[in-house]
Write a structure and sequence with these properties.
- The structure is a single chain.
- The chain is α+β, with helices and mostly antiparallel strands and 74 residues long.
- It is globular and about 35 Å long.
- The chain has a 5-stranded mixed β-sheet, with no helix packed on it.
- Helix content is 22%, strand content 28%.
- The chain has 2 helices and 7 strands; from the N terminus they run E-E-H-H-E-E-E-E-E.
Length: 74
């Protein structure tokens, strides 16, 4: 099983922004393209919406990279 990293956020963040901040993609356009291909998973479910809101506790998976857990600050 791949190791999982926690990435701390304050409040809410949109999935496209999270992909960039967690260094899972290089740019917003890369995030958009990756999401459109249907390979990004949030809590095991395919997610294609850049605007999907993450608030903490979700696990984001991108093929070829270790999964990242969204950790709420506090």
């Amino acid at each position: 099983m791949a190791s999982m990293e926690d990435f701390e956020i304050n409040g809410m963040i949109r999935l496209g922004q999270f992909l960039k901040l967690a260094n899972l993609v290089d740019s917003g356009s890369d995030a958009r393209e990756l999401l459109l291909t249907g390979v990004v998973r949030v809590d095991g479910e395919v997610e294609t919406r850049r605007g999907r809101q993450l608030t903490g506790g979700e696990v984001v998976e991108v093929p070829g990279l270790d999964p990242v857990r969204v950790a709420a600050a506090g």
